[in-house]
Each structure stands twice: as C-alpha cells, then as structure tokens.
C-alpha cells in the first residue's frame, strides 16, 4: 500500500514511546534505530493526513439534502398528557413543498429515532450526554433516503418515535426517556426496538375498540429491524410489520447495528398500507452498500399496491378460491423453541391451519432442522462486530455514508457504564463481548459464522422450493410487564439479570431471517391472556417468510389468510 506523503516530523507529537506501545500490544518489539525511525515517520505521516481530513469541510450528498417543506423544519417535545405511551420522541409537521406523487398524500407517518430527519435530533433512544458534550443534541443535516421518499410521496411526518437504547433491545423498557407502553395494557411491552412506531399505530385500534385516548397517533410508521425489531413490536401490538429482503429498501441515513443485518421496514394497521409504504420506500439509492445488483432501480420497484388489489379482486373460476394452489409450510422447529408459550403455539397453529385452508390453500408441516441453529449463527456472525458498528460508529469495509451528526462517546467511561447498566445492560454486554470474542476467537471464527449463514440460507431456500411461504410464531409469548426500572418505596430496581431474563429467546424465530436476508412479516392472528389479568386480551402475531425478493408472495399470503379469517367469522356469525 502506497504512502501519500512523508510528514514534517517537527509538526507531530507522536513519539517513539507511542510506537513502542503500539508494537507491544501486537506482541512486537522494535529496537531503537533505523527501523524504529522509519516506522515512526510513517505513523507521523498517517497522523498528518488524518488531521488534514478532520480539518476539511464535511460533505452532504445531494441526494440526502433535506427536501424543501411547506413550513420551516421545527420540532418540539411532546407534552406528557399527549404522550401517555411514551412513544413520541420529538414532534414536527413536515410536508414536502412540491411532492412528486400523491401516493401518501395526507397520510400521517412517524419515523423511528435512529433514522435521520433533516432539522431534527437523532437520539438512538439513548442519553444526551452520550451523544454530545454540551447538552445540545446536533440536528440532522440530511434526510435519510426513506424519509425523502415518503415526503416526496406526499406524506406528513409527524415526528420521531421512541426507540430502544441504541436499538439493542427486543422489548420496550430500555429507552433513556423511559419504557414505551403497549396501548393494549399499560405497563407491558410494545416490543422493540421500533417500540414507539408500533405503539403509535396500534393505539388507533385500541382507541376504536375501547374509546380510550392516547393523544396524537399516526397511520403509518417506519421501523428498523436487525433481529426482529419491526416484526416483534407489530406482533406484540396486533398490527402488520414487514422486514423486506435485505437490500430492497435503502438503509442510508439510519444508524445501524451491523450492516449485514440492517433493514428498514413498514409498519401499519392494515395490509394495503404495508404494500403502499413498501412501494414508496423500496429501490436502489446509489449510496447504500447493502444494496446489491438484485436491488431494483426506483422505476423498477413493483407496484405492490396494484398487484395486491388485483390479486384480491380478480375473478375466480368455478370451484376456485383465493388461495387455491398456494402452499403454506408450518416450520416444525419454530413451534418447539425454548420459551414458546402454549397459547402462542396453539393460536398460531390453529389460525394458520384453519384460515389458510378455509381460503383454499394447502397447509403442511415442513422440517428445517438447521432453524434450531439460526439464532446461534446470527449471534456468532454479528456479535464480534456489533460494538464496532453500533457503539463506535465505524463504517463498514464498503463505501458508505454514515449520518454526519452522530458522534457517540467512545471509549465508554464509568458514567456511561452506569447509565446503560441501569437501562439496557444488553448494550453493555455487547461492549464486553466484542473485545472478548476478538481476543479469544478472532475474525477466523466470525468468517466461519458468515459461511454458516449461507448454509442456513440454503436450508430455508430448499424448504421454499416446496412451499410458497413458511409460517412460524413471531414472538414466543404475548406482551409481558416491563422490568422495574427505578427503585422506589416498594424496593430496588430490577437487577441486570431480571432485565435480561425477560428478553432471552425472544428473537429465536425472527433473527435468523435478518442474517439470511429473507423477507418476513408479522400478521396479527389472535389473542392470548394478559399477565395477571385473564379477562384482558393481548395480540399474537404469526410470522410469514418467503423467498428473497418475493415480497408480493408475502402480501398474497396475508391476503389469503385474511380472506380465510373473514370466511370463518362469517360462518360463525351465520350459525349464531
């Protein structure tokens, strides 16, 4: 590798002691002499060029410049009485001055708080003093690609939604601003890490059913998903959440965990809105290295809304039903995971068998033994690098455009440790396991885990040759109470293990598909009993998986399932 230039040694504070210290950490000893002098000069030269880059003006990609809006981009904190679920982080009212389409005209949407919205802070669900030294959160100078796209389609962005601390929790108790509550039962999880996004959409359903009000809500939301963080909140709150095929929706402008598993996806109350929002979000942006040659150009993105409408409204021949010839595979291993409750298992099984069959689809069992290893492979392939990307903000090996206003404190200190231990000890675990795994296993083991991901992908692909979709439970239980986050007169806060125990195994059925890149969606399929309150009903979600790049197959599956449920409910009504 060539050297750009040789520095003026007199301008550098790098010394031979610094060189010796670096060498010692690599188990190398360099004697004083010409070799040490040469390597010292090279270090000083590298320092000089990096300082030159640091001193230069930053660059904002033109595609990410904030879209002109009808009013100045201002934001405000929600009033407590307007935010009973703690689901709002910042509020705004952004409408594009000259949208290029009306696909989302008049529709309200909220953006997860790890996604850059020009003129708003991006807090990642964490503490202000971890993100800045002066208490003034920097404002985003960019619109993430998906933000520009929803604005350009006429949507009204109402604000940013609370997300979990560094997006590193599948439940909703870890945000610096406090737990996000399920609208179905206050004090219980709405799922994470897209916790606020799901709560603000599902609150509309609960409000219609009960008359209870939750302050301002939205029709649509965008969430992020690395292990299930779109699907799990959707399942816990009784709505739809889709994790698209890896590379279909650009991640540009969002803060991720590990590039290999980063996804953005739509959250909505109904299937038609999922199709519409996916259509707006999808397509190559020319910036995100996660996108592949298979990623469609913007003008080649399928018209998911039209396809779904035509599928549901098509004329059927005599004896044909909407699901005729559609093949559904019940993934056996997913119904036998540790921690899966009987009510979730039975609800998903019975709903899938009954409603798909009622609509004419065939439902059979299929075994994918490697699914049992899926969560292990996901962990081994990502955990060594998560601290680098999520906590330290390192770019990946491929050219990428990270949000320029995000500068997370690193290395951590005792104060940061104490803040995170009290709110999200899983993040502290990530900080510890990264160096540990690098020291004891190293990149060779991580590379092997990546090869195992290809093996896991192939195992699912073989099953999907036989079936159009695979079905699993999404979350292993219904929503559960939050851990106790603060001490009070009744006793101390929950311990580290108490906080972590409730999350163990939650992503077993969802995380594998982040690694393999298959599209997967949670579909509401029934209800279970609320904790300590048998008369209360909490939603249960069914996960549907298809071949990569076959999002429309998932939309078809959901439409078939909905039709089967409608037919079953009609029969029940007639019998009554």
Characterise the protein shown here:
Residues 98-555 form the Amidase domain. It comes from Talaromyces atroroseus. By secondary structure, this protein is an alpha/beta fold. Among the domains are: 9-55; 64-323 and 443-457 and 473-484 and 491-548, Alpha-Beta Complex (Amidase signature (AS) enzymes), CATH 3.90.1300.10. Helix content is 36%, strand content 14%. It contains 16 helices and 13 strands. It has helices at residues 16-25, 34-55, 128-131, 145-152, 195-210, 231-237, 271-281, 304-313, 342-358, 374-391, 414-423, 425-440, 443-466, 496-501, 511-516, 551-575; strands spanning 88-95, 108-112, 156-161, 181-182, 185-189, 220-225, 240-243, 263-268, 327-331, 362-366, 469-473, 520-530, 533-545. The strands form 2 sheets. It has an 11-stranded mixed β-sheet, with helices on both faces. A two-stranded antiparallel sheet has the order 4-5. The chain is globular and about 95 Å long. The model has no long low-confidence stretch (mean pLDDT 96).
Based on CA inertia axes, which overall geometry fits? globular
CATH superfamily of the domain at 64-323 and 443-457 and 473-484 and 491-548: Amidase signature (AS) domain
Helical segment tally? 16
Order of helices and strands: HHEEHHEEEHEHEEHHEHEHHHHEHHEEH
Q: Which percent range fits the helix content?
A: 25-40%
Question: In CATH, what is the class of the domain at 64-323 and 443-457 and 473-484 and 491-548?
Answer: Alpha Beta
Number of strands: 13
Kindly state the mean pLDDT as a whole number? 96
Query: Runs with pLDDT <50, length 5+?
Result: none
What is the CATH fold-level name of the domain at 64-323 and 443-457 and 473-484 and 491-548? Amidase signature (AS) enzymes
Give the biggest beta sheet: 11 strands, mixed
Instruction: Give the strand order of the largest sheet, numbering strands 1, 2, ... along the chain.
Output: 1-3-2-6-8-7-12-13-11-9-10
Task: Give the second-level CATH assignment, the architecture of the domain at 64-323 and 443-457 and 473-484 and 491-548.
Answer: Alpha-Beta Complex
Q: Using only CA atoms, what is the Rg?
A: 25 Å
Structural class: alpha/beta
* Strand content range: 5-15%
């Amino acid at each position: 590798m060539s050297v750009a230039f040789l520095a003026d040694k007199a301008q550098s504070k790098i010394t031979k002691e610094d060189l010796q210290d670096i060498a010692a950490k690599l188990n190398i000893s360099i004697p004083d002499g010409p070799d040490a002098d040469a390597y010292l000069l090279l270090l000083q030269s590298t320092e000089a060029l990096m300082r030159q880059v640091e001193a230069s003006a930053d660059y904002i990609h033109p595609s990410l410049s904030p879209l002109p809006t009808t009013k100045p981009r201002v934001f405000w904190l929600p009033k407590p009485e307007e935010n009973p679920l703690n689901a709002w982080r910042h509020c705004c009212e952004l409408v594009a001055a000259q949208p290029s389409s009306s696909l989302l005209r008049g529709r309200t949407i909220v953006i997860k708080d790890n996604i850059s919205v020009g003129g708003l802070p991006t807090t990642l669900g964490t503490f202000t003093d971890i993100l800045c030294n002066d208490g003034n959160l920097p404002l985003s100078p960019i619109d993430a690609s998906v933000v520009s796209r929803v604005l350009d389609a006429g949507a009204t962005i109402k604000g940013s939604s609370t997300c979990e601390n560094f997006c590193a929790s599948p439940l909703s108790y870890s945000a610096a601003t406090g737990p996000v509550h399920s609208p179905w039962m206050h004090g219980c999880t709405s799922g994470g890490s897209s916790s606020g996004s799901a709560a603000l959409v599902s609150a509309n359903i609960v409000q219609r059913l009960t008359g209870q009000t939750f302050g301002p809500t939205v029709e649509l939301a965008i969430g992020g998903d690395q292990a299930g963080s779109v699907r799990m909140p959707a399942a816990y709150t009784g709505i739809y959440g889709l994790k698209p095929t890896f590379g279909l929706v650009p991640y540009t402008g969002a803060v991720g965990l590990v590039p290999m598993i980063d996804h953005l996806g739509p959250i909505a109350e109904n299937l038609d809105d999922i199709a519409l929002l996916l259509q707006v979000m999808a397509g190559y942006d020319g910036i995100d290295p996660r996108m592949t040659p298979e990623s469609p150009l913007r003008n080649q993105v399928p018209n998911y809304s039209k396809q779904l409408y035509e599928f549901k409204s098509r004329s059927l021949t005599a004896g044909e039903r909407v699901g005729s010839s559609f093949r559904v595979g019940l993934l056996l291993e997913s119904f036998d995971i540790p921690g899966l409750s009987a009510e979730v298992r039975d609800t998903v099984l019975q709903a899938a068998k009954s409603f798909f069959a009622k609509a004419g689809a065939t439902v059979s069992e299929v075994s994918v033994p490697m699914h049992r290893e899926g969560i292990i492979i996901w962990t081994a392939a990502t955990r060594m690098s998560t601290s680098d990307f999520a906590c330290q903000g390192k770019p990946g090996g491929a050219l990428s455009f990270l949000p320029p206003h995000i500068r997370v404190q690193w290395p951590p200190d005792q104060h940061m440790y104490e803040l995170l231990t009290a709110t999200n000890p899983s993040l502290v675990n990530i900080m510890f396991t990264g160096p540990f795994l690098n020291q004891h296993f190293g990149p060779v083991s991580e590379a092997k885990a990546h090869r195992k991901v290809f093996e896991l992908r192939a195992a699912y692909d073989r099953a999907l040759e036989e079936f159009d979709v695979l079905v699993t439970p999404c979350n292993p239980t219904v929503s559960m109470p939050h851990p106790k986050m603060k001490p009070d007169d009744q006793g101390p806060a929950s311990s580290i293990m108490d906080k972590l125990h409730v999350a163990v195994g939650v992503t077993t059925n969802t995380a594998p598909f982040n690694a393999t890149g298959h599209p997967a969606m949670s579909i509401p399929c029934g209800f279970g009993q609320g904790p300590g309150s048998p008369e209360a009903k909490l939603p249960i979600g069914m996960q549907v998986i298809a071949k990569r790049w076959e999002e429309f197959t998932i939309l078809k599956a959901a439409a078939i399932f909905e039709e089967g449920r409608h037919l079953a409910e009609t029969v029940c009504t007639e019998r009554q």
